[in-house]
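Example record for the data management plan.
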Amino acid sequence: MVMRSGPLPRMSRRGRVTVGVLLGVFLLFTLLGWGVQAWTDWLWFGEVDYTQVFTGVLTTRLLLFVAGAVAMAAVIGGNLWLAYRLRPMLRPHSPEQATLDRYRMLLAPRIGAWIAAVAIVVGFFAGLSAQGRWSQWLLFRNAQDFGVDDPEFGIDIGFYVFQFPFWRYLLGLGFTAVVLAVIGALAVHYIFGGVRLQGVGDRMTTAARAHLTSLVAVFVLLKAVAYVLDRRAMLLEFNDGVNLYGAGYTGINALLPAKEILAYISIVVALAIIIFSNAVMRNLVWPGISLALLGISAVAIGGIYPWAVQTFEVRPSVLSKEAPYIERSINATRAAFGLADSKTTPYPASNLRPPESLATDEAVVPNIRLLDPQLVSETYTQLQQVRGFYDFGPKLDIDRYTVGAETQDYVVGMREINYGELTTQQSNWINRHTVFTHGYGMVSAPANQVVCGGQPFFVSGFLGDQAAQEACSSSTEEIPAEQPRIYFGEQMDGSDYVIVGQSDPERNVEFDRPTAAGGEQYYTYTGSGGVEVGSFPRRLVYAIKEQEPNFLLSDALNDASKLLYVRNPRDRVEKIAPFLTLDGDPYPAIVDGRIQWIVDGYTTAATYPYAEQVNLQEQTADELTGLGTFQLARENVNYIRNSVKATVDAYDGTVKLYEFDETDPVLKAWNKAFGGDLVVPKAETPASLVAHFRYPADLFKVQRNLLSRFHVTDPSEFFSGQDFWEVPNVPDAPDSGTKQPPYYLYTQLPEQSEPRFQLTSAVTPAGRQNLAALISGSYVDGRPQLQVLELPDETAVAGPVQVHQRMTNTNATIRQQLNLLSSNQAQVQYGNLLSLPFEDGMLYVEPVYVKSNQTNAYPLLQRVLLSYGDGGEYVVLANTIEEGIAELVRQGQEGGTGTPAPPPDPGGEEPPPSATPEPSPTVTAPPAVPGDLAAAAEKVRLAIEEVKAAQASGDFERYGRALQALDVAMDEFQAAQRAAPGAAPPPQTPAPTPGG
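Corresponding structural encoding:
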């Protein structure tokens, strides 16, 4: 049966109209969405005064899209048209050609349109790919010199960082274009008879052969270029023989010359393909042989020979062969990650007995941080929340301030609006976006002080008449903020836009704060931030953007209205500086009376020769990731610098990028790409802002993890891996597999002339739990400095996990006291375990919190665990740091008997009700003893009765005064008790309520 060929059926007129309408609607909404997004972005960038970023990125992406699309379309379209023009006019009759007639009849009448359509579609996708390379192009165009040459070719590192990635992209684009051109040209030649599978004679016409072989020759020439670039890429590849990056012995001595030889062979093969297939043999036999020889050469020269060198020459003596290349990787990694200037100091840790100087120290002990910023967040929320929709987030921040001529670290939190806590009535569009617009105030407390049964000692942050809190936990000295309102904060996501501003100055609609009299104060935003949305066109465009008709219908908008959006400080900086990788922990500071969010920005690269490559998400993950600390993206880098300190004003949203590393070539390239004035020069950074800069946590974690291996600089020792370190797990949950986070301290370490605000972390030997070193990061004269205190290998000082276990499990008395603090109604929570070097020994401090299981309870600091030496012999569970230090010194003077800590002093900070037995209704008077002790005991009894009465009355102000009086009475009793040994203990102190 013979099938009759004919033209393919055509679409009906109605069908064509339907398709046209659907396509038009699709394009309309697509273009409308793009247009609205571009317009609103232009307005937003104009508000923050960074339009050069918007126009620079947009222009670059458009030009790259056009260039990529036109280039690809020209190559594909040109080759398709050429294939059509080279078609044979006469075709032999065969069943194959008869089958193809119907396709020729469809294509031939509109061949130009078909070729244009294919070229446009392919070009469109090529353009999309090209516009995504805008960052590579800008770096390529604004390349800088590093001033350092790679160790193999002597080429400046800038070539690898700025130019190499874009050359690789262009090469890949060339391969794609040639492959698609070959496939398209082959299809056209086949359809129009230039290539056939049946019939007598040649299977390919002379014209088709010349066309296709020329394309194959271009492909082979591109392969020669690829071999040349591959020689450079070898310095970036992983060397699994030594578990490091960069070419090793086999790569340099076998694979490197092999790729050079293959590049020359590729050129010869390309010429052979063109000459033999078209001028000499005029067939595909010799070109095929040439391609086969190229493949065999690639396998033999580029595969078998390097394998033989690796197997028979390198493996029998790996260290001697690879030592120079190991040294290259060590040096490159230390340079690329800022480890080269780290200062390593031997620390003997030989003193295992608490020295007497602990009691008189003024640099370390007074600055020991007791408040854990993660645990006390609930405390801040309960005591400083004021309204249910305010929130401090899951983790607070640490900064240092000078209050009353004394500099120390403070735990600070921002009272922000948590839109997820608004009630149903409060969540309607008017309330959510025009009434509840901002938070109010920064709350701070010294990190080394607690009062009122374990509460923070707040020095700022009160709203209204907080009599009970002021009675027991406020200070006369504050950290003032001239503008305490928070319109931009960490609790705000992309949907939390607000509309502010009123044309009527008498009409305040924004909820501001509660008043002392119990009422509510309202406010109208007067800042410079925000996009003006008083006109109808702008309301319309934002109504489309947010898909919200209230922009057009609500009378909440007026001629003076402004729209605040992108309110998260980190998102705000990321939008302005998309080329920066941002630290996951922005923090607030009061600078010149204004609350500023400080965000650390990193410049990164992934093509630094011989440097170790790390994944930022994996290297920065620890216990706090996702709990107030943003998780970084899965970005592989082998170069990083903290080049920018960005600030976001919490009131008006002003963003400034301050240059921090003036030597970084990557930042110089970006600054040049956007006009040269993108960042504020380092010399112009205000001193008041510099005073609040801190070593960024994510950079420190990356550097700490790398230092655990790359502190070893001798190639032979590095190869053996015996001196490698590792970061310990969380001390109170060692089986969780979660790494212990570094912690900020204001302290003085050995080799430091005065206390510094620094980030510190302990590390242990790989596979063991004893302490290996302490690593700290701080700023000295405005420049980062990493300091490593390395303990001797033979030292058996316990690491964080061991110390926690010994402090909480080894001493029976302490274990019993900790069990008393925990019950069915309360749980014990452990704060940061601090490792503090002191007098050639190690002092460990771990706060102990107790949290009741009652509703709205919060953790209270109840005890402090301390140990000195190896973490087991000298251990104390005390009410306060002062008591614990005194007890450690006493134990040290008694010769290390390990005397258990005394029972908790009833005059210290009390645990919650579940941790302390309820007092009996009748308080028994102390035994009759002569002198001051009896009077002191009576005073304690009366103070206890007043505390009970105040607690029953519900008068928090009276309760706070009663607790203070009880503290004074207990101090007097303890003094009298020490003067009269053997006296009876004082009456039991009543337990405070969780909120007391």
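Summary line stored alongside the record: The first strand starts at residue 238 and ends at 239.
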